[in-house]
Design goal:
heterotrimer, A mainly alpha (about 290), B mainly alpha (about 325), C alpha/beta (about 250), A: mainly alpha, ABC transporter involved in vitamin B12 uptake, BtuC, 11 helices, B: about 325 residues, globular
């Protein structure tokens, strides 16, 4: 039981990381908190639900193909939103940017309710991932392990893109100093749009990957975004490795906490976050800087 | 000393805080009109009026933080919920008489504001917003999951006659009085030295600190005050329904209040009031035409922000409904 | 010598970069003292250290004989250190009078008061401050509508609200016209003279420094290069070489 929960926690942590990393990347370049990131995650799950029966149903390949195509569609939706709405208010008050993303949350939620109805749906798990790996007396369910591994692959791919490709260099230039990026002749708009697309893609990916392992309904958006925010606060916004650590801590704590304090696992996470925040502000003299 | 600037004349001029002068010629007829509507129209109108009043107070309490303290709280519903549950549990668990428990609600909310606020004001801007959100979600989760104490997701019902057993009209009148007095108190606070300190801390914390202000303490005061008045709104709402539900502390209520403040106009005291009126009226009439109310609301919000990035305040100023000029 | 401010081996590092290298410095009470030096010399960093703005400052700062090294900006202000910022930091959304009144209210320590009577009690003081900085006519204007010169004078007025014994001005004249510079700094000097308070300011305009300062400290690359009267500094060849040659 402990092992099962641990593996489940790792998987949840990994999906949380995929979401939080998108939030963090977008925040890093544009200083915008995308409140609709949970909605994009939810869309990923619903699109996967639609695609799984169409693409080689039941097979592992079909599942991953569905997830990736779903995430690509989510990414496209993200780009449309970025180009038509967000782009126009990059220089407005930060609150206005938040309100625009909240508007997107409302729109996506109602569209999802219109298309898929108010009840939870279930996404079938690919046959190959149904079982469990037995090591001695411990059972490790397959599905979360595979999702965790897929997440790791994505993490490595992200690190590669960010540190070893031209796109990554541009991204880091844009994150460190917007003026500098402009000086280097980098198309700021293109960076914003690409980062938003990438963030939306990651969110869609996370939604699709975790869809078979829980309830999928139109209320998913807010639960997910709150967890992702907590991850960002623990890890520090704009800090990718912090987000990874934070996500795994939150995921595992949530899963393990359910066994010991079934009612209060969220409170546990809150306490961790509070401890991190207090620790961080004590580490700063005066605490008023930033 | 020049003649044009005699201190007493000056004292009248400088205190004209943008958007905060009470236009009594507008306020008194508005209050009278509200009471006339309450007494002359049907029950459904009265209920809508009561809700508008309650949410006008709730949004104004949030507006104290947002427009004056420049603290974007993303979890203001926590204090609405704590007010409602403080009152309800005071009756159900502590066995207080209903009349006494109504005072407990806002106090519990203020206490919650003190605990969460002490944590939140250690952070600024987006981290502050995120932490307030997390605090609210924790409140919601506890209310939702702690069956033995809070009744869990079914809430607490049937412990009192809704509205103290008053008629709809009677309770609407009572709400009108309570909300008016509360908003007046908030108005008083904004104009007081405390309000000036809150605004100073909100505009430039480094400047305020260099002048000798302990910014965190000021922000915490603002937070507790806002929580207290949100708690009054929550208590009123619990009395209106004779019930309390975890949703009172939910994220959607927080979003509602944020939207109200933005709709009504940031950086003006009356923004929360206008926002509550517009939002609740839309919410009452749109769904009878179109089922997808949130979709419509989302599109309206997009349209407003994209066409008027400075919010409704500018529009209201142009219409002359408010003394405040666009920022 | 009665030093109001003494710095002992002040050191501030950003990672491996040493912004201040063991600065030791005594500021006598009542003096008008200028900090000059090329960009990146550490002048503003030093001011920020004294004002309690920076974490991780090594060394010891004594103000009126008390150790103030780890105090917050707010408690330093209460102890009698006033300051203005390099970039004008008045409360832009409020009127001139509200800015002054906020400073006055904060200086009384009664920021939590709910009584508007506090405004009435302090109106004369606020008005007097406005007179001091020649902004009476603009009292009801929003700070956002003021010129830079007016804003800087307003900030000076706000810093005077709690009658600081030591006033720190970080490039008070940056971005102003020559006429405005001299106007502001003569106003500051007169006030300091009248009230016998101490002034420490960072300034790039040598003419202003020569006119206002009684003593000058030259900094370069995080260290004190020379100190003396304006005349001595002007005649110092080392200073001329490094500061006048390298600064522009």
């Amino acid at each position: 039981m402990v092992m099962i929960q641990f593996v489940n926690g790792l998987m949840e942590g990994m999906t949380l990381f995929l979401i939080a990393s998108g939030l963090t990347l977008i925040f890093g370049v544009s200083r915008i908190i995308n409140f609709a990131h949970g909605s994009l995650y939810m869309l990923g799950a619903f699109l996967t639900y639609e695609l799984v029966p169409l693409i080689a149903p039941g097979t592992l390949l079909g599942f991953f193909a569905s997830v990736i195509i779903g995430a690509a569609v989510v990414s496209l939706i993200g780009v449309v939103f970025e180009v038509t709405a967000l782009r126009r208010i990059y220089h407005a008050d930060g609150l206005m940017q938040l309100i625009v993303t909240i508007a997107l949350v409302l729109i996506i939620r109602d569209v999802v309710r219109m298309v898929w109805g108010p009840n939870s749906i279930t996404v079938p798990m690919p046959d190959a991932l149904m079982g469990a790996i037995v090591v001695g007396e411990n059972y490790f369910p397959m599905f979360p392990i595979v999702v965790f591994a897929a997440g790791l692959v994505i993490v490595l791919a992200m690190i590669w893109v960010i540190y070893f490709t031209r796109a990554g260099i541009l991204l880091r230039a844009g994150t460190d100093d917007r003026g500098m990026a402009a000086l280097l002749g980098i198309n700021e708009r293109l960076i914003f749009t690409s980062v938003f697309a990438a963030g939306a893609f990651l969110a869609g990916l996370a939604g699709g990957l975790s869809a078979p392992y829980g309830e999928v309904n139109h209320l998913l958006d807010t639960t997910v975004i709150v967890s992702a925010f907590i991850v960002c606060v623990i890890g520090g916004l704009g800090n990718l490795y912090g987000a990874l650590a934070g996500a795994l801590v939150v995921g595992v704590t949530k899963a393990m906490g359910v066994m010991y304090f079934p009612r209060l696992s969220m409170v546990l996470i809150f306490l961790i976050m509070a401890a991190v925040l207090i620790g961080r502000s004590l580490g700063r003299q005066g605490g008023s800087a930033r | 000393m020049t003649e044009t600037a005699h201190p007493t004349r000056l004292s009248r001029r400088w205190s004209s805080l943008p958007g905060i002068d009470i236009n009594w010629k507008l306020v008194i007829p508005a209050l009278v009109l509200a009471e006339i509507i309450n007494r002359s129209m049907g029950t459904s109108t009265t209920t809508l009026l009561t809700e508008i009043l309650i949410f006008a107070l709730f949004a104004t309490s949030l507006n104290l933080l947002m427009s004056f303290g420049h603290m974007v709280s993303f979890g203001h519903s926590a204090y609405f919920g704590l007010g409602a549950y403080g009152f309800t549990l005071g009756v159900v668990k502590a066995g207080l008489p209903v009349e006494a428990a109504v005072f407990l609600g806002p106090l519990v909310a203020a206490l919650g504001g003190l605990v969460f606020g002490a944590l939140c004001v250690r952070l600024t801007e987006i981290y502050f917003a995120m932490l307030t959100l997390a605090c609210a979600q924790i409140t919601y989760t506890v209310l939702f999951q702690w069956y033995d104490f809070t009744g869990g997701d079914t809430g607490i019902t049937g412990f009192m006659a809704p509205r103290f057993g008053l008629s709809e009209q009677g309770f609407a009148s009572l709400t009108l009085v309570v909300v008016t007095l509360s908003i007046f108190a908030l108005w008083w606070i904004v104009r007081s030295p405390l309000g000036l300190s809150i605004r100073a801390a909100g505009q430039d914390r480094f400047r305020a600190e260099a002048l000798g202000l302990t910014v965190r303490r000021v922000q915490l005061s603002a937070f507790v005050i806002a929580a207290f008045f949100a708690g009054i709104a929550g208590t009123l709402h619990a009395v209106l329904n004779g019930a309390a539900f975890p949703d009172y502390a939910g994220l959607s209520l927080t979003l509602d209040s944020l939207i109200m403040v933005v709709l009504g106009g940031l950086n003006s005291f009356s923004g929360g009031i206008w926002g509550a009126i517009v939002y609740k009226l839309l919410g009452a009439f749109v769904p009878s035409f179109i089922h997808e109310w949130e979709l419509v609301l989302g599109i309206i919000l997009l349209a407003i922000v994209l066409t008027m990035p400075k919010g409704f305040a500018g529009l209201i100023a142009r219409l002359g409904l408010d003394r405040k000029g666009a920022k | 010598m009665d030093a109001i401010l003494s710095a002992r081996n002040i050191r501030k590092c950003y990672g491996s970069f040493v912004a201040l290298k063991d600065i030791s410095f005594d500021l006598p009470r009542g003096e008008r003292h200028a900090l000059i030096g090329p960009n990146g010399a550490g002048k503003s960093t030093f001011i920020a250290c004294v004002a309690g703005q920076l974490p991780g400052v090594e060394g010891e700062l004594l103000f009126k004989g008390h150790n103030i090294t780890s105090l917050t900006p707010a408690s330093l202000a209460k102890k009698g250190i006033g300051r203005t910022f390099q970039i004008s930091r008045a409360f832009l959304g409020m009127t001139v009078m509200e800015n002054i009144m906020a400073a006055v209210v904060i200086s009384t320590g009664r920021w939590a008061s709910l009584s508007r009577g506090l405004y009435r009690e302090n109106l004369d003081k606020a008005f007097h401050l406005l007179e001091t900085v020649a902004l009476v006519e603009r009292a009801a204007d929003r700070v956002g509508d003021l010129s830079l010169g007016d804003r800087k004078r307003l900030e000076f007025g706000m810093a005077l609200a709690n009658d600081p014994d030591l006033l720190l001005l970080d490039e008070p004249t940056a971005g102003m016209s020559i006429k405005e510079r001299h106007y502001l700094m003569e106003m500051v000097a007169t006030r300091m003279e009248e009230t016998n308070k101490t002034l420490l300011f960072v300034e790039h305009d040598i003419d202003v420094v020569m006119k206002i300062a009684q003593r000058v400290t030259v900094m370069a690359r995080g260290a004190v290069l020379a100190a003396g009267t304006p005349g001595e500094i002007a005649a110092n060849e080392e200073v001329q070489a490094i500061y006048l040659g390298g600064g522009h």
